[in-house]
Prior knowledge:
Shape: globular
Distance between the termini: 22 Å
Structural class: mainly alpha
Amino acid sequence: MVALMPERVSSDTVRRLGERIAASQEAEIELMRDWLLSREQPLSAPDLHAGHHGHTGHDDTAVMPGMLSPAQMQALAAATGPAFDRLFLEGMIQHHQGALDMVTELNAEPTSAEDPLLSDFAASVVADQSAEILRMQSILSASDPISEERP
């Protein structure tokens, strides 16, 4: 989603938020990668990002919680200006909520608290992404062109 921003975003606030999200997600991905490697686990699952590359499933649904469906990604890629900003924020809220849902599932596992690194990471994800969701909701509800374009 962030990769689409340079040619499409119109709000400096949304641009800066996207840049911060990209930086924090790079750090999260690196931590998860190292965690998996240290446990000799595979780094990827087959077709994990199929929805992000335009491959549609039979029902056009995302492949995991929070991932945008192919139709949502196509709409985002086709949008520019305030329409892009709104779709980006709505999609990123969905993406972050998916991460929160996955942490909830993880924490429901009986052994989830046994790994301090994983437990700290999950708590960090909840804190950071919850704060970012509130920030994005605030941007969407502000009195600016993004919120005025809502149907």
